[in-house]
Every structure is written in structure tokens, then in C-alpha cells.
Automatic annotation (TrEMBL):
Polar residues: bias regions: 645-658
GO cellular component: Golgi apparatus
Protein's recorded name: Membrane-bound transcription factor site-1 protease-like
Residues annotated as domain MBTPS1 third: 97-228
GO molecular function annotation: serine-type endopeptidase activity
Length: 658
């Protein structure tokens, strides 16, 4: 009844993981996309439905995100049992997925459980799906109610709720934003509460006219709060300026990977930068995600702004604010990537679906936009593409697609140059890393590096987390490692006149997918600066009672013992042949609902007639073919007269001489 499914992997472990709800269309596209991975997977994988009734939900083993489909027979048994339970259930017809929010439970709530929340941090947003089993249409009565549990310190958190007023078809959304109240800025502990949602749907046809069916469901919330960490330990990841495929053509960051031409991972700390994120958490840093323009965060709360592989343009207001923030103590780390208009023209391809040539809208990173951002300090990246290995502080790293940093103190290495004609050459003194301290009193620091593949999980060959640690030590504490400060590779910055700045590709269509640019008479220009997100916090209605302990256990995905599942008797619904009684001829009983009625008895009497006529036609065909074969005269083979010379040789028995 509900077209919602998730990719699940039954495992023996008793842990749980987050499930991912997909529509049926998304499932079909993913199934086609993952055919190759299905064949190579050795895991026991199944397909499961999100439970539609909370009363029928029990514990189920781990259900990981992004698994593949396998073992269709077990999947069919599970689906049939789920649908049977759903149709036979008469309790709470409204359910939520996930049925609770516990930011302390790992791995089920990863990545939320990987970092506690604190006052002043970015709000944590959790999307919940509302499944309405009462009808295809429904609505949310009034507004969802936030009720904190006072004995469990529920008043230490603030909750903002946005939702779909109308549920159609059968489902809607509930977005819950969680933040820490000001009075808990230095408090540490667990806070709990729940959000109450009431759903109403039209009654059935046989009910009273205008009647409604209502159902109330609760969404428990449990979070861990810690005191606000110091500014030096807080890192802000810029996600707003990362563009993802689809819909535009944004090429891969590693040009060596020709089998994966598109940058489709999203460049997020929870996807292809997950290892980097977990490394920073293990080092004691608190990482937050900025999903709005640079003008929408308080820079005094953060020590470092981290920009990695940015493809988006920048608003003029963002450039001005970033300059002011760095002068006031904010530090900046940029991991850029390759950009070269000649290479961009070379990696174009013809798409058979759209029957068009796809030209990249930018390179691995948008170097012209980054140059506009850091030009106020006299810095820039060039469009040179280099490849090679270097060693700093007894660490080896592979640098791909390095761009020259044009100003301020930097480090250089000898790397090999691979030009477009597939020729290689060795180039000495290529700048790969730049560090800069702003001259203002109490100003921040800037670190620039020309490649992001060493911290990207997609095509990483050697990681450079050690380099990221060193850069964070420099930006957060103004501490430069001795291997960097006393390095023999430290050189004077090149002048800007030696290396002209790269320009944007003429005729690109970045404005079609950009949040910053818009078309204007063939020359894109910046859009008006959007307003910063504003949350309306729900008015709490405290509850002076203890949270029931079973709220966290009974609303799980449905567990089905596949060995005990009783499949319906499919043969009972197929047409069955009834034994003939005296006086009947050719009567077939067909159950009602599938093929109602009986065949006429005359049908059975006409079958021998058609069989006799068919046999006569076949016999006539063979008789005609046999008659033609007998009347046709036989052709004699022509007799070949042997040459006289050969006859004489045979009679004499002598071999001819040459």
C-alpha cells in the first residue's frame, strides 16, 4: 500500500544502523545502477519495507545504508509477512520512520551519534517520514507539540519543527531541528523529550458524512550535551560552495580515474570525506557543516574555516565578510583542485541520452572563483597541472594536479609535468603549499594546498591527514611544525607577472546550476544575496514525568523469522480441474475472482474436430512432398573421359620423366 522501501543487510550483529527510505522509482534506478556490485557482493542482503504500524514493530538486526539486493526468495517472504501484518493490524495506523531520535546510539544514528551537541553550534536537523495508514490523504491537526521531560533535563534543548500540512500520497515529512539552550552552555548530560503529532484522514464511505479518523504518534528525542568547546577546537566545513552531479557536468578530481568521469559524491564530510571527518574527531576537533552563505555564521565562534574542492562562485558580500572575519581572528584552510581550460575541453564527451556534447562547467575546483576570494591578500592559484611525490616531516605524500600558489611563503618540490600531448618532463621548484599570517593585530592565518585527493576517500592513493593536522595546528594555535619552518624547500613566492591568472571557460553554463549566478544577457551576474535561514523554536509544554524506558526498543524495524514464515498457498488461487461427474463432459471449475464461470461443454466436443482437421493437413503436406520426389527425373553425372597420356602411363607402369 505504501511505495517505500529501504536497502537492508541482515547481519548476525545485534547493533543497528540508520535506514534510508527511497521511493519506488529511486529503487529501480539504483537497482539498475548497482547490477555490477550485486554480482560481486558476498553479503546476505535483503530488501525490507519500512514498518507501517508501530505496534507491530520489534527488534531487527542491523540495517545498513547503501546495501545491494540479494536472495530474492527471502525478500519475498519478508514482504509478504510485512503486508500480512499490516493488513491484519488494527492499532495505531500512523507511524514514523525513524520512529525515534537518539543521538547517542551508534551506529544506528551515525553520523549524529559521532559528535555531541553544544550551545552555539549549528542546529542538528533530522528528517522524519510520516506514514499514514488511514488513507491516501491526510493532514496534520494544529501543530506538532514539543514536550520536554523535566526529570530528564528536556528543558536544556530547543526544538524547531517544520512539516508538510497535507500528507499525500500516504506520507509526509517532519523536519526536526535541535539546538542547545543558553542555560546549558556549560552543562553536560543527557536531555530527553518527545514531539507529539496528530494526523487526521477522511473516514471511509460507509461512515458518517464528514467524519474523520485521527491518530496520534510520539517521536522520542534523546541527545547528549557537552559544554561549548574552545574556539580553537571548532572547525567549520563549507558545504554551500560544493556543487554535485547531477544535473551539471562537474568532472572528477583525479584525472587518472577514467572509468569514473563524474564528481558525483557530493564532497561532504559524511560521504567521500568520511575518513577525514573521523580523523578530526579522533584528534579532538568538533566539525560543523555550513549549508548557507559565508554571511550566515558567527566567525567569533570558530577557529578555522575549511574549504575543500569548491566549485561554486562567491557573492561579493561573502568576500567582504571573509576578509573582515580573518582580520578578526578566523583562520582559513583551502584544499583546491585542478583547473585548466585546455583539459576541460579535452574531457568533454558525447551523451547518447541527450544527444549533446557535455562540456565541463568548471574543473575539479573553481580556481577563478577561489582567486577572487583570496585576491584581497595578494594570493592566487594557477592552472598548471603537475604530478609527483614529496616528503615533509618524514611523511610521504603523492601530490596530483598541483596548482602554483603565487604569493606569500610556500614550499616547493620537484615534480613531473604531464602535458596534453602525453609527454612528461621534470620541473624544479613547483610551489605546492603556502602559509600566511595576516599583519593585523589578532588576525587569523591562511593555508593553501593545491590538491584534495589525499583527503578524499574516492580515489585516494596516499592520505595526508598528517598535513591537515599540521595545518590545523598552524591555523588554530599559530604553531608551525619544525619540519615546515626549517624546511630547505621554503622559497620566496613568485611574482604574479610570471604566471597569468586562469580565466573562466568561455561559454560555460555554470549559471544553470549555481546558487550564486544567474543569466543576464549572455553574461552571468551574481544573484541577490539570499536571506539566512531562520528557525522558529517551538513553545515547550513541559511534562513532569519520567520517559518510559521502552520507547527506544519497541519501535524498531519488523523482525521476521524466515524459517517460520507461512507463505500463502499460491496454488489455491490457480484454476483447478474438478473430477468429472457422470453426465458431464469437459467442465472446468475456476475459482471466482480470477476466472469466474465455466467453460461451455460444447468447447470440449469441438476439440477432437480441430485435432482431426490439423492431422489431415499435415498428412496431405507429406503426401505432396513424396509425390514430387518420385516424379522428378534423376540427373546423371557427366562421365569424364580420361586423357590418353595418363592411360598410357598406367598401362606401361613407368613414371613420367621431366
Amino acid at each position: 500500500k505504501h511505495p517505500y522501501i529501504c536497502w537492508c543487510t541482515p547481519q548476525r550483529s545485534q547493533m543497528r544502523s540508520m535506514t534510508h527510505v527511497l521511493s519506488l522509482t529511486d529503487y529501480r534506478s539504483r537497482k539498475t545502477r548497482n547490477k555490477r556490485s550485486m554480482r560481486s557482493s558476498s553479503n546476505s542482503v535483503g530488501l525490507c519495507l519500512i514498518p507501517l504500524h508501530s505496534a507491530a514493530q520489534t527488534f531487527m538486526p542491523i540495517c545498513h545504508l547503501g546495501s545491494v539486493l540479494h536472495k530474492k526468495m527471502k525478500t519475498l517472504k519478508y514482504l509478504l509477512q510485512l503486508l500480512s501484518n499490516y493488513c491484519n493490524l488494527s492499532l495505531s495506523p500512523t507511524s514514523l520512520s525513524p520512529s525515534y531520535i537518539d543521538l547517542t546510539e551508534c551506529p544506528y544514528m551515525w553520523p549524529y551519534c559521532s559528535q555531541p551537541i553544544y550551545y552555539g553550534g549549528m542546529p542538528t536537523i533530522v528528517n522524519v517520514t510520516i506514514l499514514n495508514g488511514m488513507g491516501v490523504t491526510g493532514r496534520i491537526v494544529d501543530k506538532p507539540i514539543w514536550q520536554p521531560y523535566l526529570p530528564q533535563n528536556g528543558d536544556h534543548i530547543d526544538v524547531a519543527i517544520s512539516y508538510s500540512p497535507v500528507l499525500w500520497p500516504w506520507a509526509g515529512y517532519l523536519a526536526v531541528s535541535i539546538s542547545v539552550a543558553k542555560k546549558a552552555a556549560s552543562w553536560e548530560g543527557i536531555a530527553q523529550g518527545h514531539v507529539m503529532v496528530t494526523v487526521a484522514s477522511p473516514a471511509e464511505n460507509d461512515s458518517t458524512v464528514g467524519g474523520e479518523l485521527t491518530s496520534t504518534v510520539k517521536l522520542p528525542i534523546k541527545v547528549k550535551i557537552v559544554p561549548t568547546p574552545p574556539r580553537s577546537k571548532r572547525v567549520l566545513w563549507d558545504q554551500y560552495h560544493n556543487l554535485r552531479y547531477p544535473p551539471g557536468y562537474f568532472p572528477r578530481d583525479n584525472l587518472r580515474m577514467k572509468n569514473d568521469p563524474l564528481d558525483w559524491n557530493g564532497d561532504h564530510i559524511h560521504t567521500n570525506f568520511r575518513d577525514m571527518y573521523q580523523h578530526l574527531r579522533s584528534m579532538g576537533y568538533f566539525v560543523e557543516v555550513l549549508g548557507a552563505p559565508i554571511t550566515c555564521f558567527d566567525a567569533s565562534q570558530y577557529g578555522t574555516l575549511l574549504m575543500v574542492d569548491s566549485e561554486e562562485e562567491y557573492f561579493p558580500e561573502e568576500i567582504t565578510k571573509l576578509k573582515r572575519d580573518i582580520d578578526n581572528g578566523l583562520s582559513l584552510i583551502i584544499f583546491s583542485d585542478w583547473y585548466n581550460t585546455s583539459v576541460m575541453r579535452k574531457v568533454k564527451f558525447y551523451d547518447e541520452n541527450t544527444r549533446q556534447w557535455w562540456m565541463p562547467d568548471t574543473g575539479g575546483a573553481n580556481i577563478p572563483a577561489l582567486n577572487d576570494l583570496i585576491s584581497v591578500w595578494g594570493m592566487a592559484f594557477s592552472d598548471g597541472l603537475y604530478e609527483g611525490d614529496f616528503t615533509l616531516a618524514d611523511h610521504d605524500s603523492k601530490a596530483l594536479k598541483l596548482k602554483m600558489i603565487l604569493k606569500h611563503f610556500l614550499f616547493s618540490r620537484s615534480v613531473s609535468l604531464e602535458v596534453l600531448k602525453q609527454e612528461t618532463a621534470v620541473v624544479e621548484g613547483v610551489p605546492i603549499l603556502g602559509l600566511y599570517q595576516t599583519p593585523s593585530n589578532g588576525g587569523g592565518r591562511i593555508a593553501l594546498y593545491g590538491d584534495s585527493n589525499c583527503i578524499d576517500d574516492s580515489h585516494r592513493q596516499k592520505d595526508c591527514f598528517w598535513l591537515l593536522d599540521a595545518l590545523l595546528q598552524y591555523t588554530s594555535y599559530s604553531m608551525t611544525l619544525p619540519s615546515l619552518s626549517h624546511s630547505h624547500s621554503r622559497v620566496a613566492p613568485p611574482t604574479g607577472t610570471e604566471h597569468p591568472l586562469p580565466q573562466r571557460l568561455e561559454g560555460n553554463h555554470l549559471y544553470r546550476y549555481s546558487k550564486v549566478l544567474e543569466a543576464h544577457l549572455g553574461d552571468p551576474k551574481p544573484r541577490p544575496l539570499p536571506a539566512c535561514p531562520h528557525l522558529s523554536w517551538a513553545k515547550p509544554q513541559p511534562v513532569n514525568e519520567t520517559a518510559p524506558s521502552n520507547l527506544w526498543k519497541h519501535q524498531k524495524l519488523l523482525s521476521v523469522d524466515l524459517d517460520k514464515v507461512a507463505l500463502p498457498n499460491v496454488r489455491a488461487y490457480r484454476p483447478q480441474v474438478r473430477p468429472l461427474s457422470p453426465g458431464e463432459s469437459g467442465a472446468w471449475d475456476v475459482p471466482g475472482g480470477i476466472m469466474p464461470g465455466r467453460y461451455n461443454q460444447e468447447v470440449g466436443q469441438t476439440i477432437p474436430v480441430f485435432a482431426f482437421l490439423g492431422a489431415m493437413v499435415v498428412l496431405s503436406f507429406f503426401v505432396v512432398q513424396l509425390t514430387k520426389a518420385k516424379t522428378k527425373p534423376k540427373r546423371r553425372k557427366p562421365r569424364i573421359k580420361r586423357p590418353t597420356y595418363l592411360q598410357q602411363q598406367q598401362t606401361t607402369g613407368k613414371n613420367p620423366t621431366v
